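Q: Got a minute? One more chain.
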Amino acid sequence: MGLLAAVSAYLQPAPRRLRAVGRNPGCNVALAAANEPQHHAVDAPSQNRAPVITALAAASLVTAGPALAADALPSAIAAYSHYLALMGIVGSLTTERLLLKEDMSEESFDLLATADIVYGLSGLLILVSGYFRATAYAKGWEFYAHSPVFWVKLALTAVAGASSLFPTYHIVRRAVAKANGEGVAPMSEKLAARMTTLINAELLAILSIPLAATLMARG
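A: Always. Here it is, folded:
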């Protein structure tokens, strides 16, 4: 604000100066009284203000640059982590959906268990990065707290998280049994169908979140 005030003051028109014309010191008193010098208001010569304005603008950028950079980098990292986590969730859920069936081989189950681990880590990352984006970066908590679409996003996230509990429980239980040398127990048709339905619900909720985010960004 101080810099803007200085520029505004500098750009104000220069004060008008008075210049005497027709003064002749050699004349006598009568002639001087008869030819009283007349004063005309003239403007001061205009100055080239471009170099000074450029210097002031450069000083402003130099002063504000470090503060903007210090805030931009963490914000960019939080946004990138959020998007990366979303891609990890979609990729891992799609892998689970394609692998899950009754007569899975042990190799397919190992890949299924790995995909579920990636899903869990991505879910944790999206929660942490989303928290920092909503409170410290992006548009701030005041904006998000008063946006109904934001709460829809949270509801969709909660649906996806709750739907993952049942499939994850059975995947972890079978993974622990295999690690103990008991092998992978065959999955019943009913259990496979139920897990598939829940994974479909997770995918639907997760893929709806970007749409909600777009609507929220457009107000």
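A: The chain is about 75% helix and 5% strand.
Q: Perfect, thanks.
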